Amino acid sequence: MEFKKTVMLGALVAGTLAAGVAMAAEQFIGLPSYRVGAYAAGGSGIYGGWIDYMNLINERDGGVGGVKLVWEECETEYNNARGVECYERLKNKGETGNSMFSPLSTGITYSVLDKVADDKIPLVTIGYGRTDAADGRVFPWVFPLITTYWSQATTMIKYIESKEGDLKGKKIVLLYHDSAYGKEPHAVLDRMAADKGFTVEKIAVAHPGNEQQSQWLQIRQIRPDWVILWGWGVMNPTALKAAAKTGFPRTKMLGVWWSGAEEDTIPAGSAAKGFTAAGFNVAGADYPVIKDIKKVVYGKSLGNMEDESRVGSVYYNRGVVHGIIAVEAIRKAQEKYGKGKALTGEQIRWGYENLNIDDKKLAELGAAGFMPPLKTSCMDHEGSGKVKYQSWDGAKWQVVTDWIDADKQMVRGMIEESAAKYAQEKGITPRDCSKEM
Amino acid sequence: MFYREAGQFKASYQADQQIFPIIQDRVGIAIVIALAALVIPVIANEYWLKAILVPVLIFSLAAIGLNILTGYAGQLSLGSAAFMAVGAFGAYNFMLRIDGMPFLVALVLGGLAAAAVGVLFGLPSLRIKGFYLAVATLAAQFFIVWALVKFPWFSNYSSSGVITAQDIVILGYTFDGPVAKYLLTLAIVVVLALMAKNLVRTSTGRAWMAVRDMDVAAEVIGIRPMRTKLIAFAVSSFYCGVAGGLYAFTYLGTVEPEGFNLDLSFRILFMIIIGGVGSIMGSFLGAAFIVLLPIFLDNVIPHLFGNLFSASFASNLQLIVFGGLIIFFLIVEPHGLARLWQIGKEKLRLWPFPH
After folding, report:
1. Do residues A112 and A92 lie in contact, with contact meaning Cβ atoms separated by under 8 Å?
2. Based on the domain organization, do A53 and A132 belong to the same domain?
3. Peptide linkage before B302 cis (omega within 30 of 0)
4. Interface residue B174 vs chain A (CB under 8 A)
5. Which pLDDT tens digit goes with each residue over B120-160?
6. Which of A51, A319, B39, B322 is most buried by its number of CB atoms within 10 A?
């Protein structure tokens, strides 16, 4: 009896192993996540959503083109040095090395910017990072997808214009996080102010931004028509509360997409009501893709979120957007380089450069209206530039606009100018896009 | 037995005054340097060189800088990261604005710029002491980072205030591979560390220690406190500045001012507290401890417990264990890891015949 049992067990093990070898094709994705520290809310939400989406693809579709997605997290603590360590640690894992690197931190993005070209790993920075990397001729390996800070700034002005009519003589205050991130929109806003005849007052808030008395005093003196909140972390609820105290209407406050999550408004309580913020994804759990995740992933208790109620929040959905784009890039690359096997970072880079997620595709994915359509090329690594605006009604985010297009012409000119300067500084010869296939 | 100095006679002043007067130390250091320079480049892979060894060396240099100021001269500083930033942005600007500027000269000039800024912010140390001085150096931390963001000239008008280090070319050779960058960093750190080791034994170093132990007494025996403290600030900031230059050029390649925030200053301070205040060797041990332990935990904890915990809990657990280990080491050895090594040396001297 004992012997028989052992043989059967052995056969079972061998069978499992054989099966394991047969379906060995696995695409490795290294996730440089952060789940501790000041920005843990963003990190756990976005990486959680991303992992849940990959689990959905594995469980529902059996992977991408028969290739299972596998991943490993590496804690960066939002710290540049740790991020570089994670990048180096993850880059040779899996069958073909790391497929992509998305650190969700502008600082880490800059720290690995030069390395990705040597290692042939696409650096995907959705809604953050280096804006002029949208010029794919100079930055073949960097993808600041969907929309950049500069594009976003132009949509903000468009939004304000749609509310105010003519902007001539209007006063807009930019209340910004005093960092490289906060300085991103300055040049764009200055140029738009000169074009449209409004004035921009820029008021800095020192990190972390939990003390804004003097800034709001200044705003009260200026008496602006609009305040653009370019904040991060604790600075956002503080600004909303200070605005309430100063008596500045929140309906005249416009937030950047890092100011527009539940984590920014709920701590401000009733002071946040009426606040509007940009987003390249929307909040809500009513989209088919989120429903599928709830059914398939959470139904099998494979969900990554400890607090399931966060499924459908802004950060979580942003993670799902990361997942959708990563999966579609792999799918695209498989069309060219072959299905059923793991692809290299170089091949996936091609996938990212030739993405075409149109409305029809979005509907198939169950994400119509969830994120903007996206079409990239060798020239354009941004691919969309569209943003929706959402208002906080006191309990949840309500979408108030359709997708608003960026002023592409102006932003593109500035991007090319800045990228050309970088190319000259670094001695890079831009690619000739007519020769790229 | 292994560490017996008996029989090692010093027949000349030169022999008596060398950096490592005991032959075991000389041999030991020579072996360590030879290992680091000859063996490690051959056996270590890219991950170890780029992500582990280079940052440990650079932070060791920064910790030496702070140790000179805090450990030897007794002036508490929370501005180390800012002085690193001055060094990084200084070296970048010297390379950018002066044609044909050699890398090593730019690095030294960046260090000197940091030294000048350090002296400026060291002036209050003449009047205020201890924690109050820490607050004054905190001003340096915030002011310098603010100034680098505020004035776009420093970052060559880059829209986001970020600088990208130029290529390192020395005598026509481009240092671009991981091994080349590691060896360059190692060479600079070894030279500067030996210089620091020597410096603290000179009259300058002894003056620092006298001021640290009791500045009134030091003044009475003829040490000028102003000169001594300002030299300490200058030398310390120079070391931090060079470390910052290396941080930008041989480690990250692209840096932003926010990278040099108060957090980094605290990390450097923890390095010398853990490693040993007033010890060059402790700076290396402390830097290795603070840089390597979190990485080690991040590698071990998820594998140890598998999927038992959620990812968030595993991440938080790392911090808890890290903090716990720091407290543990401070309790068992308040004088730092360097002190443990010293105790070990004394044991080895008597072994195998303790009293």
Report:
1. no
2. yes
3. no
4. no
5. 999 988 888 888 888 889 999 999 998 998 888 998 887 67
6. A319
Q: Is B50 in contact with A88 (Cβ distance < 8 A)?
A: yes
Residues A213 and A301 in one domain: no
How far apart are alpha carbons B13 and B25 in whole angstroms?
Answer: 18
Higher-confidence position of A286 and B159: A286
pLDDT the model gives residue B202: 93
CA distances from A21 to A8, A14, A18, A26, A341 (A): 20, 10, 5, 11, 13
Same domain as A268, residue A185: yes
Whether residues A257 and A307 share a domain: the answer is: no
What's A247's domain CATH number?
A: 3.40.50.2300
Mutation for A interface: B179, B252, B313, most A CBs within 10 A? B252
**Among B234, B206, B225, residue whose Cα is nearest residue B65:** B234
| pLDDT score recorded for residue A216 | 94
b or e along B252-284 (b: 16 or more beta carbons within 10 Å of the residue's beta carbon)?
bbbbbbbbbbbbbbebbbbbbbbbbbbbbbbbb
Domain membership of residue A338 (yes or no) is yes
Residues B319-323: what's their mean pLDDT? 88
Answer whether A152's CB lies under 8 Å from A188's CB: no
Across the interface, whether the CB atoms of B160 and A82 are under 8 A apart is answered: no
The DSSP call for residue A201 is E
CB pairs under 8 A between A and B: 115
Q: How distant is the Cα of B258 from the closest Cα of chain A, in angstroms?
A: 7
Identity of the residue in B259, B312, B318 whose CB atom sits nearest the CB atom of A306: B312
For B164, the closest of A115, A186, A425 (CB atoms) is: A425
Contact A133, A109 (CB under 8 A): no
Distance from CA of A51 to the nearest CA of B (A): 11
**Residue burial A102-111, b: 16+ Cβ < 10 Å; e: rest:** bbbbbbbbbb
Residues 6+ apart with CB under 8 A from B170: B102, B103, B104, B184
Q: Check if the beta carbon of residue B43 is closer than 8 Å to that of residue B53.
A: no
- Each residue of B243-259: pLDDT tens digit? 999 999 999 888 888 88
The pair phi, psi for residue A184, each rounded to 5°, is -50, -45
pLDDT in tens, B216-244: 999 999 999 999 999 999 999 999 999 99
Rounded CA-CA distance B75/B131 in Å is: 9
Instruction: Specify whether A224 is located in the same domain as A262.
Output: yes
Alpha-carbon distance A398 to nearest alpha carbon in chain B (angstroms): 29
Say if A8 falls within a structural domain. Answer: no
Distance CA A22, CA B209 (A): 69
Chain B residues with CB under 8 Å of A142 CB are none
Can you tell me the ipTM of this complex? 0.83
Q: Is B254 touching A (CB cutoff 8 A)? A: yes
